Amino acid sequence: MSLNDSLKTAFLVVLFVFVELAPRIAVYLACLPLVVLLVATSVRSSERLIATCWPLIVIFLLGGIVSIGSGEMNVDAVKGAYYTSRPVVFIGAGMCLQLRMSIPFKMLRRGLIVAAVILSFVYIYKYLTTGAASEASRYALRDAIGVGYITVAIAAAIIVGFVMTVRIRPMEVAVLSILMAAVVLSGSRSSFITIGIMIISYYAPFILVPFAAVSLAAILFVLTTPFIQLIVDPDTLRQMFYKLPAAVVEIISIQRYSESEVNVGWRGFETFRAFSHVWDEGALAALFGTGWHGVVPILWRIKLGAEILTDIPVLHNAWAFIFLRSGCAGLAAIFVQFWLWSSLFRRRLRSDFDSSAHEIRGFASGLLLVSIVNIPTIASVYNPGGSGQIIGILFGCCIGYYVNDRNITKALIKKDKTPRYRGRSDMRRTDH
Question: Is the four-CA dihedral 102, 106, 112, 114 of positive or negative sign?
Fold first, then answer.
């Protein structure tokens, strides 16, 4: 490995650790200049960003138009603008890094794995130094040491996919054991889902056709929003509360009438309240949302864990978040976004600019599937923490690979079509 490659790898390790451990606003402010650099220095790069992420930009702009038109540019509007712009900022930062640094996928993979090992040791250390951690409840443990890191889950999936396609070596087994120990200790269901989906995508990326991706998103939308009541009666759903697994009950989106019911299924309750609030605001709000400044009232003071709440501070369900900010127009835009990404990532990389080009397609497809499946639980790319930041940056890197591939392919085609001078040897007759 050359000195330049070593420096790039070290930079990636520091970047991924920083994104997971640093305060979210610090990560946002660090990535924002990269997006400005991407857009300001290259018209082609800005066109690529818009072409691949314009639905996310539309969702952001719709929220702003509603807030400005309502004259509600207050503190809540600033917060809403920040949360709504996060996916574009992190995807743009990832694109900028890839297009500027030309990071080979092997290097990106190596940086992710090394960063994941560091993060695993950090989490294991916090777990071991937290008093009675093994006896604490899931929520108490998360309050004490956090929810784990999605970088660890992604790196674990990369190792499994790579090891099973090459050969098992002691180093990979040792690293995988460390990563899985951190995932198990965190008890993060999203991490286990991420690992499973990423591994599957390594071997079956061809299933990620645009129709399949949008269909999966549509099914999850119906099942994890109040629209589920069009299929199953609300009273029946409420009777099933204590018969279904807790992970399923938590995301069922129906009205809840007591604090105990809310605590059992907070994510489903907040989704129900968000949709109900927007519907109550009228047809215009249902169509275009309540803007950046929109907040969701709970309608009564409720104790969730150790907090007393009157408004919902963070929406875990991205469907609810988008509907609140930009209404049905925003929901339509996010479906178009999934269609665009799946159309892009289904294409095989054709150039030889990266020796691991065949892996990039499976990795990008896995990220997209993870984003779709995690919408109702951790808000996908709209997650306000490290998960949304890491997924956004990796999405940007994958888009950068495809942009580079297209640029190189066009350059090769153009080179092949360049007329060459025919020397005397080319003028020889061959028909005698």
Answer: negative
Side-chain half-sphere of 196: how many Cα atoms within 13 Å?
Answer: 8
404 Cα distance to chain centroid: 22
Using only C-alpha atoms, the chain has a radius of gyration, in whole angstroms, of: 24
Is 264 within 8 Å of 250 (Cβ atoms)?
Answer: yes
Residue 379 φ/ψ region, left for φ over 0, alpha for ψ in the -120 to 50 degree band, beta for the rest: left
Return d(Cα 212, Cα 206) in angstroms, integer.
10
Contact 400, 94 (CB under 8 A): yes
CA distance 230 to 280: 19
- The torsion angles phi and psi of 298, rounded to 5 degrees, stand at -85, -20
Please give the C-alpha separations between residue 180 and each of 176, 191, 331, 355, in angstroms, as whole numbers.
Answer: 6, 10, 35, 28
**Longest CA span, the chain:** 97
Using CA atoms, how far apart are residues 94 and 87, in angstroms rounded to an integer? 11
Q: For 202-241, how does the pLDDT look when each residue is reduced to its tens digit (9 = 90+)?
A: 776 555 567 788 888 999 999 999 999 888 888 888 777 7
8 A C-beta contact, residue 403 and residue 95? yes
Q: List pLDDT tens digits, range 281-294.
A: 999 999 999 999 99
**Residues 23, 24, 28, 29: is their CA dihedral positive or negative?**
negative
CA–CA dist 324, 296 (Å, integer): 8
Collapsing DSSP to helix, strand or coil, 319 comes out as helix
By the 8 A CB rule, do 315 and 186 touch?
Answer: no
